[in-house]
Amino acid sequence: MSTKFENITYRIRRFDPERDRTPNWEEYRVPYTAGMTVLEGLWKVKELHSPTLAWRSSCRMGVCGSCGMLINGKPRLACNTQIAELDSDTVVVAPLPNFDIIRDLVPELKPMFASHQELMPYVVREDVEEREHPTNEFFQSAHELEHYLQFTYCIKCGCCMAACPTVATDALYSGPMPLGQAHRYNSDTRDGGFAARKAILGGEAGPWRCHYAGECSRACPKGVDPAKAIQLMKRELVIDYLRLRKTKCPAKVAEKPTEVKRREGIPDAPPRTV
Amino acid sequence: MMRDQKLWAWHLIAGAVILIFLGVHMLTMHMEGVIKIQSLNPASVGHVDKAKIPQAGDRTSDEGDIHPIDWANVRARGVRTLYMTGYIVLLGAALFHGLYGLRNILFELNPAVWLKKTLSALLLLLGLGLFVYGAWAAVMARAVARAWKM
Question: A12 - beta bridge partners?
Fold first, then answer.
C-alpha cells in the first residue's frame, strides 16, 4: 500500500456484554503514519474516538503474545503487523475466533491455558529434590536440543487455536498450542513425563482429531510448526502403543567441569564495589 | 482414556494390511504376465495340466494362458485355507479402516456426546454384521470350491 494515505479506516467488531446482545461493527478514521502497526492504530482509535475500546497488549514487540486478534481475516499479532503490509486502507479487526469474547477484542483464553496446564508444560522428573534444588545442569547435547528447539519459540498467543478448523468444531480437542507444547516437553531429553501426559494425549483431547489442515503453522507469528509437532506426537504415541518406544531415562545431571585452565591474556575481573 | 491411541494404532495397522493385500491383488490380477507366481494363479499354463481342467481357457491371454479370474484359477485359489484366511483378514482390515475413518468424519460434525456414543455403537454393529456376513461368504466359497467336481 502506498504511504500517500493520510487516514486509515478501522472497522472493529465491538461487544460489551453488559450492553450488547450480539457483537456489532463500528468504523473509525485515524491518521496514518509510515511504519504504523495495527496496535498503534488501535491506540489512536482509543485516543481519538472510543476510550472504551478494549484489547490486550503489552510488549509491543511480538514477544508477550497478548495482542493476538483477527486482522483482515487472519489471526495475527497486532503489534507485529504493519498496516502497510495489509495492502489496504481499511483495517478490519475482530477478536480471535474459536474463543468466547470477554469484551471487544479480548478473547477468553482460560480454556486454552487450562488444556495447556493439564498437559504439564514443564520438565517432569522423579528426582524432585534435584529439580527443586539443582546441584548442576541436566546434560543435553546440541543435537538433542534441535529436536524441540523450534517449539520453544511459542508465545501462547492463541493465533494457532484461532486458525484451527478442528478446534472450531471439537470442544474436546486440546488444540495446536497445548499439543505442540506437550510434544516440546515429550521431546526434551531432560523430561520423564511422557507416561503422565499420555493419559490425556491417548484420549479424545489428544492429537487424533487433527486432520492436518496445517493452518496453525501458517498462522503462527513466531514460525513455529505445531502441525508438525502433532504429527510427530501421533507417531510417538503409536510407537508407544506398539511397545516399540525406547524408554529414555531423563538426562542425568551434568558433571562439573574439571581442570579448567584460564586462558592467557584475560584480565582479572574488577574488584567488587559492594 | 487411551482409547483413541489404540484405535489410531489399529487404523494404521489395518492400512498396512490393506496395502499388503492390494500388492498381492496387483500381483495376482494385473502383473500375472510379468511375474508368474504359482501359488497366486495355480491353474495357469505351465503349472497345471490344462487338459485336466475342463473349465480352463474360458478367457485366455494371447499366449493361451488362463486368465487370473478364470474359474479354474478362482477355484484353485479358493480351496486353500490360506486364501480363505486372507480374505477374512482383508475384510476385517478394510471394515475397520473404513468405518473408523467414517467415524472420524462424522465426529467432525461435532455431534453431542450421546450421539457420538450412538454413532460409535452403530458403526461397531454395522462392522461386526458385515464382517460376520463376509467371513461366512469366504468360508462358504471355500466349501463350494472344494465340492466342485472337476
Answer: A26, A93
